[in-house]
Amino acid sequence: MSSLNVGLIGYRNQAGYILNQLIKKKFIKKIIIFCHKKINEKEKKKNNRVFYVYKLEDLKNINCVFIASPTNFHLKYISFFLNKNIMIFCEKPGMHKNSDIKTLNNLKSSIKRKIYFNYNLNHSDFKYYLDNLIKDKKKFYLSIMNSYGIAFKKELKDNWRFTSKNIFNKITGNLGSHYINLILNAFKTSSKIIIKEYGFSDRKITDTCSINIFLKDQFHVNIFLSYALPFHDEIKLFYDDGYYNFSKDNISLFSPRDSFNKENQFTTPPKKILKKYNKDMYKTSINRSIDFFLKTVLENGSFELSTFKNAIETSKVLLKFKS
Fold it and tell me: Which CATH superfamily is domain 4-118 in?
């Protein structure tokens, strides 16, 4: 297969970002977008390879589809395309209740291999470094802290992040699911996951959470996520003689473990920048996910069943949690 016709469900936010990436691909002949709302003529004329339809049944003659709609519609759209012999890219999560999990679990393996659930970071450099430490049987400790400070913004008071009780709309599921899925993909299993939620703002829904994942051989992952605290975005991967620091802009290595200044006092280890990003690490990972999916479609390939299974397990973990 040398060219593709691609479907897209969704228009703004993540769907808008995906659309911009698809437009850059010269091998994509046509992009057909399913929208609920009419698109004005000026918008329609922005690109002659992009077309709009307003009935799901009109999203046809495509090789694959990207689903980037609100979470509660994901299974509906997946089900619509299951028997149409096309590949499905679905933004996380593909399921948001236990009945969804049961429906997807009952699919034939050949159908499961046609579905790719996109959890960000699985194609990140961070995942590459983590995989290498696991491969080399290095002991490590992983600390993740993301905070954004948006809970106190007046214009976001009624935003779905702070009004919906659905675990996948709260910070625990919306952001935490990416990291839970990443760890499940890296280790294939976990011995114990402890989730706690906190509220620092006056919003109706908790704005902060901690996720502790205990793994084999006493490996431990600590994840702290907040919409309330000042902006901070950092992943630290500690191993026996230093640590990697992953930020939006670069990857740094701090080593050796024992560091002293001229007065023989402990000091921060020397910093070595291993990589800088033109785009941040998260955008780079999303782009790689899109490229990975399209490459698989072009090659008439399929996806590993473990990817599907870990998407299911990620949702199970979150659905078991009760705040």
Answer: NAD(P)-binding Rossmann-like Domain (3.40.50.720)
